[in-house]
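Input/output pair, single chain:
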Amino acid sequence: MKISAVGDFIAQKRVRKDEGFEQIKAWMSTSDAKFANLETTIHNGDVNAASQCGGSYLYAPPKVLEDMADYGFNLTSFANNHCFDFAATGFLETLKNVKASSLVSAGCGYSLKEASEPAYLETKSGKVGFIACAANF
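Output:
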């Protein structure tokens, strides 16, 4: 089994497919499990409850999750310092959108129990168990 992992996926709009897409997709296709950290919230910008954490407030439209899958990613987590950029409303909207996508995700949930559970990805080479967590201020 081959596993590939990249760092943060910080898209704030749809990902262009005319610059490097084919090379990245080809490289990603050589792996079974392909992870990227979803370092943004996912909603249409209609969430007006910004958190009080300060710093950047990141969000991208739900179609960005399709872009991630088009690049070949199949594993993600948004258990990171941006998951509450738009308070609980933004977190729940992101959770809903990620769960509706084709990506397998761990580390976030509707309860601590759900967020703590592993997620599983079936591949042609076997099953991958995946956990994710974050510590935040």
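The chain is about 25% helix and 25% strand. The longest strand covers residues 3-9.
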